[in-house]
Design a protein that fits this description.
By secondary structure, the protein is mostly helical. Helix content is 58%, strand content 4%. Strands 2-1-3 form a 3-stranded mixed sheet. A hairpin with a 2-residue loop joins strand 1 and strand 2. Helix 3 packs across helix 4 and helix 5 packs antiparallel against helix 6.
Amino acid sequence: HHENEIAQSCCAFDHDVMANYWMHNGFLQVEGEKMSKSLGNFVTIHELLRTDKFGGRKWPGEALRLAMLRTHYRQPIDWTVKALEEAEANLFAWHDHADFDSIDESEELPASIVNALCEDLNTAEVISQIHALNKSGQARALKKALQFLGVLNIEKFSRAARASDLQHDLSAETKTQIETLIADRLAAYAAALATP
């Protein structure tokens, strides 16, 4: 079927060459079972991004990408809600420590990342190296690695973005209740300080 895919792609996009490199990845599983329409566990990237079909919510593209990259391309990929949650948690943690103030585009990608990719495109090792950059506090190198993988998104994963999302998620009634409770607490605290 590869020849068929090549022929279709070349015709559809009017190119003589479909790809310079062709790598066959491992089978895709969903929650430990082979993905198939007959099992009812078939989900598309479009559905993951725009519907709550998988895991009861929409998923950010960066989390999908990171979850896919955690497995070496030759190995079976087990697509799970837990893997997506872990990928998203990693993105939040990494964005908390990346240096967003550095704009030096000439900075080199860390050698540990390049070396991992040179070893048969070992993306699982790349993720391990990103964890190491984060743990050792190499904020600029961390930002460069996230940018290279295409998972750097300050607007979505920074602390400021999370605080803003939380504010948007609260209803007007809930915000009013919170503000009233804060005011009551401050008044009680002031009264306690005024009492001898």
